[in-house]
Each structure stands twice: as structure tokens, then as C-alpha cells.
Amino acid sequence: MTRLEDLPIRDDLRGLVPYGAPQVALPVALNVNENTHPVPDEVASDILDSIARALRDVNRYPDREFTALREGFADYLGNGLLPEQIWAANGSNEVLQHVLQAFGGPGRRAFGFTPTYSMYPLLTRATGAEWVAGERASDYTLSPQSAADQVAAADPDVVFLCAPNNPTGTPLPIDVITAVYEASRGIVIVDEAYIEFAPRDAVSAISLLGGRERLVVSRTMSKAFAFAGARVGYLAADPAIIDALRLVRLPYHLSALTQAAASAALRHADVMLGMVDEIVAQRDRISATVEALGFRAHPSWTNFVLFGDVDDPRATWQALYDRGVLIRDVGIPHHLRVTAGTAQETTAFLDALASLESGA
Ligand SMILES: Cc1ncc(COP(=O)(O)O)c(C=O)c1O
């Protein structure tokens, strides 16, 4: 049997571990921050019709510039954005990879405030760049001063700001973003994967784009849009950044079927996002209930809750697993993370957790 380390693999990939959240068929899967509500029936048929029409032309390569989809995202984001300021790819992971391929790479450095999204270091290293981890306060917040000082000291080519942050749920004040931008010379990516779950009056970094040509705001259809399986992420930035991304993408990277599905889903954005309030209600219910059970719930503007004061996260994770409930051990000592599911799934999780606490 050949082992990985026997292959002539790049030296800088030796010893790395791939992304590997467990994919197991448990009745209640709340471990990867998906939207556990299916695509509503009322829009599913229109999406299917669009895919069917695109299928008739799949003998041809798709529109390399995904023109209709970029127009759809520009409309959805508003703020006067133009289609030439939009980029999209197969999930925001690929969007972030494109940014790193263009602005990271060998001899360069990317920076993020940990704990944060676990793919940032993996994507960074896969492009041959160095990953530098900054720090947060003990409650996972960031102040403008501390964030700017750390970025100035690290002098990165690419900065990741996860707003709100995964896996902690922490909101990111807009003045932290502007302070980091001022303190840096590189690309500043604000990853707004969960922004639709923030309070309605929360300010998006999209509003900061004017006059900031190094700022990039990435989003995804995987969370609030309930479209994780379709793999669609996007970003908004200066048109010159989009030109840079064209240099590194594979030709025709977004399939005609993906483009058709995503454009159709965007036409029904209101319905697709219809479950957001319900998910936010379940998230807040989780926070209140785990607190009542004696855990510490960290404030969350996302569709998940990180809770602390867990004596033995591994044992609690396993006991929940044995009861058919899959959540996430993100490796933060004494913490676990759970996604807000449907009311029924959330109840199943909370009941299972309560039964462990009562020794039932
Ligand atoms: C903060 C953050 N960014 C990006 C992603 C990637 O999402 P996708 O590639 O499905 O768009 C995730 C997924 O969990 C995430 O948590």
C-alpha cells in the first residue's frame, strides 16, 4: 500500500490534514451550519424548469462570464453595485481560493483572528502562502485598536475577517473592518457567509466598498439561501479585483446547470430566505436553553451557537451522537458548536442534551 508520505508531494503539504467534518447519516445533523430547511416547494419547480432548459444546451460550454448570475447578485446586493463588481464560484470556499491564488501564493502571507473558519489556513497553505494567526479577546471579540495593531505587525498580503465569525458566532463591528483596512496594505476579505442571520439593521461591509479598492466582501448561498448542495458562493469588490480573479479561475468553472439553478433561486430570494427568522428564533432558543442547563452560550449573529463550560466536549459529543444528534467539536477546549435546525431538530438536540445533564 502506497502511503501519502511516499509520494513526491510538495514539501509544504506534508503533514497537513484535510477538511473533514464528519458526514454521517444521523437523524439530526446539526454540525456544518447548513440550513436544514429544504428549498420551498413553491420555488423548487421554477428552479427545476431553469435547470431543464440549461440541460438542453449542455453540449456547449457555459457562459464563462456567468453574466445573468452576476446581474442577479448585483441586484440582490443593491448598494449601487454593478455586475462587473461581482464574482462567483463553486461555493465561497472556491471564491476565497481564487482570491488567495491571485493575491496569496508562495512567499506571501495571509492572516486571520483565531478561532475562525478552519478553511482559511488550509486554503492559504494550499496556495503555498504562510498562515499567521492573530488573537481575539477571551470573549472572542475584536477591538479596532487591537485588530489594527496585530495586522500592522504581521503585515499580511491577505487578511480574513469573518463577519460574523465562525465558529464563535461573534459579530464584527464595522469600525474594526475600517481600522484593519487602514492598517493594511494587502487585500482585506470580509467573509459574510452568515450575514443574513444578523439583526436586520446590522451594517454589511458591502456599504464600505466605495473607494476601498483592496476590500473584498464574500457571501454564500449555502447558509440562509438553503442551497449548500448547489455550491454557489460570490463576492463583491472593485472591478480590478475581478480582473485579477479571471487570471486564476479555470475556464468555464461555473457549470451551466449551476448558473441556471442559482439565477432561478435568486429570482425567488424572498421565498428562499423565508426561513431565516424561524432559524434565528431557534438559535435564540438554543442559547437560552443551554444557559438554563448551566452552559455558557456565546452571543451569535449566525445560524449556530458556540457554548462553553462543557466538562468533556468529546464525551458530550459522543453521547449526543449515540442519541442520533450530530453536532460539532471545533477543538476549542470545553466548547461545542451546534447549528440551529428546524424546531423539531432543535428540540431533539435540546432534549438529548438535557437528558445527559440529568443523567437520563
Ligand atoms: C465562514 C465561512 N465561510 C465560508 C464557508 C464556505 O461555504 P461554501 O463554500 O459552502 O459557500 C463557510 C462554511 O461553513 C463558512 O463557515
UniProtKB/TrEMBL annotation:
Gene3D superfamilies documented for this protein:
Aspartate Aminotransferase, domain 1 (3.90.1150.10), Type I PLP-dependent aspartate aminotransferase-like (Major domain) (3.40.640.10)
Q: Supply the PROSITE patterns for this chain.
A: AA_TRANSFER_CLASS_2
Keyword Lyase carried by entry: no
Its top-level enzyme class, in one word, is transferase
This enzyme catalyses: L-histidinol phosphate + 2-oxoglutarate = 3-(imidazol-4-yl)-2-oxopropyl phosphate + L-glutamate
Domain (Aminotransferase class I/classII large): give its ranges: 28-353
- InterPro entries reported for this sequence: Aminotrans_II_pyridoxalP_BS, Aminotransferase_I/II_large, HisP_aminotrans, PyrdxlP-dep_Trfase, PyrdxlP-dep_Trfase_major, PyrdxlP-dep_Trfase_small
| MF GO annotations | histidinol-phosphate transaminase activity; pyridoxal phosphate binding
**What EC number(s) has UniProt assigned to this enzyme?**
2.6.1.9
Q: Which pathway does it serve?
A: Amino-acid biosynthesis; L-histidine biosynthesis; L-histidine from 5-phospho-alpha-D-ribose 1-diphosphate: step 7/9
Q: Which residues carry this modification: N6-(pyridoxal phosphate)lysine?
A: 223
Q: Which GO terms describe its biological process?
A: L-histidine biosynthetic process
Under CDD domains, the record lists: AAT_like
Q: Which UniProt keywords apply?
A: Amino-acid biosynthesis, Aminotransferase, Histidine biosynthesis, Pyridoxal phosphate, Transferase
HAMAP family listed in its UniProt record: HisC_aminotrans_2
The UniProt family comment states: Belongs to the class-II pyridoxal-phosphate-dependent aminotransferase family. Histidinol-phosphate aminotransferase subfamily.
Q: How does it assemble?
A: Homodimer.
Q: What is this protein called?
A: Histidinol-phosphate aminotransferase
**Organism per entry:** Microbacterium ginsengisoli
Name of the gene: hisC
